[in-house]
Amino acid sequence: MKLLALITSLLYLIPTAPAASYTDKFKQYQSLSRLAPIQLDDLSYDDITSKPRDYFATVILTATEARFGCVLCRDFQPEYDLIARSWNRGTKPDDLRVLFGILDFRNGKAAFQKLMLQTAPVLLVFPPTVGPYARVDDSPLRFDFSGPISADQVYAWISRQLPDGPKPPLVRPIKYMRIVSGITILMAVVTLFTVLSPYVLPVVRNRNLWAAFSLIAVLLFTSGHMFNHIRKVPYVVGDGRGGISYFAGGFSNQFGMETQIVAAIYAVLSFSAIALAMKVPRIADNKSQQVAVVIWGAVLLGTYSFLLSVFRAKNGGYPFFLPPF
Amino acid sequence: MAESPVDVLLKGSSGRSARGLLRIIILVTIAAAAVSSRLFSVIRFESIIHEFDPWFNFRATKYLVQNGFYDFWDWFDDRTWHPLGRVTGGTLYPGLMVTSGVIYHVLRFLTLPVDIRNICVLLAPGFSGLTAFAMYLLTNEMSSSPSAGLLAAAFMGITPGYISRSVAGSYDNEAIAIFLLVFTFFLWIKAVKNGSIMWGALAALFYGYMVSAWGGYVFITNLIPLHVFVLLCMGRYSSRLYISYTTWYALGTLASMQIPFVGFLPIRNSDHMSALGVFGLLQLVAFAEFVRSFIPGKQFQRLLTASIILTTGLAFAGLVVLSMSGVIAPWSGRFYSLWDTGYAKIHIPIIASVSEHQPTAWPSFFFDLNFLIWLFPAGVYICFRDLKDEHVFVIIYAVLASYFAGVMVRLMLTLTPIVCVAAALVLSYILDTYLKTSPGPVTRGRSNDESSEGLRSARSPEVGITSYFSKAVTTSAAIVYLLLFVAHCTWVTSNAYSSPSVVLASRMPDGSQFIIDDYREAYYWLRQNTPANSKIMSWWDYGYQIGGMADRPTLVDNNTWNNTHIATVGKAMSSREEVSYPILRQHDVDYVLVVFGGLLGYSGDDINKFLWMVRIAEGIWPDQVKERDFFTPRGEYRVDDQATPTMRNSLMYKMSYHNFNKLFPMGQATDRVRGAKLPAEGPQLSTLEEAFTSENWIIRIYKVKDLDNLGRDHSNAVAFDRGNKRKKASKKKGPRVLRSE
Q1: How far is residue B609 from each of residues B355, B360, B516, B591, B614, measured CA to CA in Å?
Q2: B473 to chain A: which residues are within 8 Å by CB?
Q3: C-alpha dist (Å) from residue B173 to B117, B265, B707
Q4: How do strand A122-126 and strand B699-704 relate by DSSP bridges?
Q5: What are the transmembrane regions (chain A) (predicted)?
């Protein structure tokens, strides 16, 4: 930190030196951090973006400290690191100079105020003012974050701001940890399975288990669970009078709870059909068999009628119904 | 008890033939019901091709009939995707067109001069009759009960889930594909049951036909290997399985590669790799079984098992490496988006934009399948009772297809057959149980002694139903539900699925029918009033219809193979006139067509689709088109005086609302779709001029102006014509140039 402060103060002196030294500015900043993005503060930010510059300066203004509660900033931090590292490590044209810097709010309150930033993070790209890629319009280009975003998208945007030509590709480091742990877990599972197979196999081969599993899957999917998952519908919604409305209005709308109710209705109907088909003919006693038939038949009728009434509420103009509801 | 005449008919050998005859009569009746319930639209409107894609199929069929098969194979269509053109012969599934072409020529040969349009219109109902028959065969393989097949055929014939894609006039690939799907599955089950090369080869043959007809063949390509794989995992390897699968795979893959559009995909695409992998696995397992039969020795067998697992693992790793290195193409986008449901929305907005690719809410399931939807899980459960090879197939199919149908509305179509099978299984089981006349123990029920294996509910022996009351109650309830099902299907078909969507129908306040025929009016205007070579730009939804009905070249159509070209149209629609005009000029556009429902309250119009145009354009030009600019700061999508400047200056907005306010008294213009009051001052168009507006304003056609004779730009020329004083040049910020990119 001390060293950084020293260099910063040194840098502070440089602008007072003749303007011809702007070519050194790039080298100096580059030497600060060979791969990772440069940590900036107010002074160095002003310096790095000061006017005679023969490089692109890419600066992210962010607030990573926990007390600001900027999840986006913290999530994007490693991604930005990745961009800077990929760029600095990769091969690129000699005269295409790009600096990657980070200005944290902790170090750069003045810069945030100057730019009148209300939100973070913000990515700025300052085009060069001199040199082969100098632009007439040297005002910074701004990238606004509207949600979680990956390094690839941001890197694509940065690349578009840079002049055409070859650029280093974005390289994600190989996660050896993950590979090793994956293999370990796989081997552990295989070992466990081999050891436990006398106990596990009967369970795996249990027909009832698989039947339950398939039925649950079918009920889940046919009651519109995937719709909830994709559209991220609310679980329940108030009806405006303090109560809950269980069923969404409209044919192609639904709530999370609604689908669970519907799945339960389907389940009841299916199980009464199964009971009528398979359980009842196996009851040996005449009387109890008849009672069972009547009960299951009534359950079937009542639930189906309820289902129809729910469907009628969703789909106005549906003409059919069954007696109870 | 004296023998009644009915008993003579139903017992003994004459009874068998009588039942056979009855069965045929019932099947013919079901087929007739299936065909006739699909004719609502023909009766109500006329014999007309529906919707969008059918118009292309119809056009292609006409080309095939006129120019012969080989010309069709080499067809390069220069009237679509102007200026690129489309190698149509190599980029379509020809099964549908060839089928109707063959029917046409056969009828000709029989000296029945039928118009090709009528064949196209009636192909789908005709094949639905065949589907019902195929369904009968398939379900009969699953159940010993003679009624299950008939019930399944009846369900399949009238269930709205299938009718939705096969009404008369809906001349789409699915029209024949569902028949082929069901029939291929029947042949496959037959092959597995008998272990016969003949059935396997037949399955491959129909699989090849299916590949030529519909892209959904990938479903079969993955389902059959999955069936085999699960059977292997269950330790049910048999020579029957080996024979049927290897026959099917080898012949089926060869057959599928004969279609130019498919070509080498079966060996180079991840979608097909599971079939190849299971083929390899099956060889290994067969080899192991073979060796095992010669060498006893427990140690050696263990070694063998281990080596097989190792080889499989290595092969899998090889597959992964090959697909990583790009030899095997990755999952195709459409297929991939089924698994990663968020994928399409981020990466391929054009797929996500199609309404039939949306996820399915539960009312759709009930709407399309009615009471079958709750018989379906019960039927799957019944399959666990015997759990023969074919029942495993039903279970896998049921779980997979219900997942797919939940993710995408259109895949309800692949779910419907299995729902019909499962529901018929359980219902026939119930009816058989409760309709048996002789009370007392029934011989049919297997008394389960392998109690650890069987289902919990099937352990005790079956005794049958003893009281007549129970029988009467259950049977009459079943009949009520069945009648309700029929009523539901008829109602749904008549109300929801019989609209050609080219011709719209609505009710007047007095109850009489009001036909809205704007589409055809506009397309015929184009056909009769524009030069045969004038290029029409519209959003891609209408490309096929313009090609089919107006016979004019289009820029983009429903084939959507070139996202950039579609994005170009999206950009032209969503940009300012100054930006759009050069794009229109560069693409030789003569007319621009927009669909506008604001006057009538027709919600499927272009302003409602507009955000997709913006999104797709933004995908290619993120710096020039931004979705955010079309939303107000409060995040609303508005068209009234609160609309953002970008929205109000976009070409689409201007074309939609051009002169709209003149229909209403001052300041009263209202958009009935979005329920918004429009600003008193309407938008001004300078580079386009209105050429035609249909009766109900649904279709509006604009002519692209030529360059100005005096070299002015169009806004100046229009301002001059209107008599406005020319603005001082100094007021402009800079020299105005025609932007060309």
Answers
A1: 10, 20, 21, 20, 9
A2: 293-294, 297
A3: 16, 20, 44
A4: unpaired
A5: 176-196, 208-227, 261-278, 290-311
B189-200: per-residue pLDDT in tens? 999 999 999 999
Contact across the interface for A214 and B464, Cβ inside 8 Å: no
Q: Which residues does chain B have within 8 Å of residue A271's beta carbon, measured at their own beta carbons?
A: 378
Please judge whether A319 and B491 are an interchain contact, meaning their C-beta atoms are less than 8 angstroms apart. Answer: yes
> CB-CB: which of A218, A262, A276 is closest to B430?
A276
CA–centroid distance for A130 within its chain? 40
Q: How many CB atoms lie within 10 A of CB A245?
A: 15
Which residues are within 8 A (CB) of B697 and not within 5 positions of it... i.e. 6 or more apart?
Answer: B518, B596, B598, B599, B600, B660
Domains contained in chain B, number: 2
CA separation (Å) from B560 to B272, B330, B555, B557?
Answer: 23, 20, 11, 6
pLDDT in tens, A28-38: 777 777 778 88
B603 domain-assigned: yes
Q: Is the pLDDT of residue A110 over 70?
A: yes
Per-domain residue ranges for chain A?
A: 2-161, 195-314
| 3-state secondary structure (DSSP) of residue B248 | helix
Least confident window among A19-33, A43-57, A226-240, B636-650: A19-33
Q: Is residue B477 part of a domain?
A: no
Q: What are phi and psi of B546, to 5 degrees?
A: -65, -45
CA-based end-to-end distance of chain A: 76
Q: What is the pLDDT of residue A126?
A: 85
Q: Please write the tens of the pLDDT for every residue from A220-231.
A: 999 988 888 888
Instruction: Pick out chain B residues at pLDDT < 70.
Output: 1-12, 326-336, 341-352, 437-454, 725-741
Identify the domain containing residue B623 by its residue range.
Answer: 520-731
User: Cβ contact (<8 Å) for B342 and A230?
Assistant: yes
CB-based contacts of B217: which residues, under 8 Å, 6+ apart? Answer: B177, B207, B210, B211, B256
Q: Which helix (H) or strand (E) holds A207?
A: helix A207-222
Are residues B429 and A254, on separate chains, in Cβ contact within 8 Å? no
Contacting residues of B for A262, CB less than 8 Å apart: 362
The reply to whether residue A251 touches residue B363, judged by beta carbons under 8 angstroms, is: yes
Query: B741: which 2 tokens?
Result: 């990119």
Q: Residue B444 has what pLDDT?
A: 45
CATH number of A2-161: 3.40.30.10
* Length of chain B as a residue count: 741
Last residue of a domain, one of B267, B302, B331: B331
Task: Locate B683 and state its tokens.
Answer: 């938008």
Could you tell me the CATH number of the domain that includes residue B556? 3.40.50.12610
In a domain? residue B318: yes
A7 band by pLDDT with thresholds 50, 70 and 90: low
Helix axes A207-222, B372-386, angle to 10 degrees: 160
Render pLDDT for B291-321 as a digit per residue (tens, 0 to 9).
Answer: 877 777 777 777 777 887 888 888 888 877 8
Looking at this protein, which amino acid is placed at residue B631? F
Asked if the structure places residue B401 within a domain, the reply is: no
Q: A322 vs B484: CB contact, 8 Å cut-off?
A: yes
Residue A56 pairs with which residues in a beta bridge? A98
Residue B359 per-residue DSSP state: P
What percent of chain A clears pLDDT 90, i.e. is strictly above it? 18
CA distance between the termini of chain B: 94
Question: ipTM, 2 decimals?
Answer: 0.84
Give the domain-ending residue among B315, B331, B347: B331
> What residues of chain B lie within 8 A of the CB of A214, using their CB?
380, 384, 395, 398-399
Q: What is the CA radius of gyration of chain B?
A: 30
Residue among A197, A209, A222 with most chain B CBs within 10 A, to mutate: A222
| Closest chain A CA to residue B363 | A251
